[in-house]
Amino acid sequence: MEPPQPKDATTALLDQFFAGSGEDVLAEQGLPEGFRSGYVAFIGRPNVGKSTLMNCFLEQRIAIVTPKPQTTRRKTLGILNTDNYQVVMLDTPGIMEPKYALHEAMIEEAMSALEDADVIVYLVEATRAPEILPALEATKTPKILAVNKVDRVPQKNELLPILEGYAATGLFDEILPICALSGDGVGELLGAVLARLPEAPALYPREQISEQPERFFVAEIVRERIFRRYEQEVPYSTEVLVTRFDERGTHKDFIEATIFVETDSQKAIVIGKRGVAIKELGEDARDSIEAFLDREVFLSLRVKTMPKWRKKANSLRKLGYKQR
Ligand SMILES: Nc1nc2c(ncn2[C@@H]2O[C@H](COP(=O)(O)OP(=O)(O)OP(=O)(O)O)[C@@H](O)[C@H]2O)c(=O)[nH]1
Ligand SMILES: [Mg+2]
Questions:
Q1: What residues does each domain of the chain span?
Q2: By the 8 A CB rule, do 49 and 180 touch?
Q3: CATH topology of 9-194 equal to that of 214-318?
Q4: Does the CB atom of residue 149 touch ligand 1 within 6 A?
Q5: Which residues are in the CB-under-5-Å shell of ion ligand 2?
Q6: pTM > 0.85
Q7: 69: region left, alpha or beta (phi > 0 left; psi from -120 to 50 alpha)
Q8: Are 73 and 93 in contact (CB under 8 A)?
Q9: Whose CA is nearest to atom 1 of ligand 1?
Q10: Is residue 308 scored above 50 in pLDDT?
Q11: 227 C-alpha vs ligand 2 centroid, how far in Å?
């Protein structure tokens, strides 16, 4: 008979988690009995309010929000920490018919969130025709329907048939009307999510609010300002990467963000006559970045043409999109 092998660190940790010693782990983390934690994915069509909802839960703006559809392009984590639970929220790009490789990468981000989720919150707009995404029917994960933007429904009794229509699908464990903008109904939604999260120790350090680094959020803020300032194809043809982020001790941090566009004419639009447009963009973005980081920064913007980046797998890879 072979002598017992010494356990490696991973096996010992797994034993600790699965050998009925969950309470020990809770105690070690200083967490109360009954502590819950898990992943909740916000899924839906573009523009339904997924990012607004995540910010509302966090009571902080971390996900970018604009009036234009297809704002969010990457799965973005937001962690809600209290003494009794840790809800790891996954904001996702809106699901649409893919026209470019970029859209496929965006849908992939949403699908990976769907796979990770302990609970799915499917968001729809109260004033849009009811619709169920096929990806929802294909998963057994508990699903809550959040009917958002109820402030846009003039008569509250108009809501009832909409809610009943969705209930008739039998797909949802719970259906709740909400207004992510004002926070109405969001407490009830949190309760419905918590009821379906497993009792488990915290998944992330409890002071953490996201997983993505500061430079990701800085690039997102520049992109948000572009979405809000420019029209037509420019926002959609734009990607932003933080290409330098130097912390300089007593001086302000130096941040260089590179704005990639698809054509030279878009580059000219972003820069504007005599550089006026990009100067205003820079000031606007810097103010938002400083508010987000809670410190002063020096922001330098560069614009580069990367032809057809939305359609090319290798350009998307360079810009950090995962490819299947
Ligand atoms: N009236 C109203 N507007 C809302 C509500 N929630 C979100 N919005 C607005 O809807 C627009 C889109 O919101 P987002 O949070 O960016 O939507 P999203 O689902 O993340 O959009 P994508 O990232 O493009 O998929 C913004 O102008 C929001 O201010 C709401 O409850 N009521
Ligand atoms: Mg969004």
A1: 9-194, 214-318
A2: yes
A3: no
A4: yes
A5: 50-51, 71-72
A6: yes
A7: beta
A8: yes
A9: 149
A10: yes
A11: 12
pLDDT tens-digit profile of 122-178? 999 999 999 999 999 999 999 999 999 999 998 989 999 999 999 999 999 999 999
Alpha-carbon distance of 78 to 100, in angstroms, equals 27
What distance in angstroms lies between residue 42's CA and the mean position of ligand 2's atoms?
9
| Ligand 1: nearest atom to the Cα of 179 | 31
Q: Does domain 9-194 have CATH number 3.90.228.20?
A: no
Architecture of domain 214-318: 2-Layer Sandwich (3.30)
pLDDT in tens, 67-108: 999 999 999 999 999 999 999 999 999 999 999 999 999 999
- DSSP letter at 179 equals B
Residue nearest to atom 7 of ligand 1 (CA): 49
Report the nearest atom of ligand 1 relative to the CA of 123.
Answer: 19
Please say if the pLDDT value at position 2 is more than 50: no
Residue range 189-221, pLDDT digits in tens: 999 999 999 999 999 999 999 999 999 999 999
Give the residue carrying structure tokens 């958002």: 148
| Residue with CA closest to ligand 1 atom 13 | 49
Reported in sequence order, the residue ranges of 17-94 that DSSP labels E, i.e. its strands, are 36-44, 76-81, 85-91
* CA of residue 72 to ligand 2 center, whole Å: 4
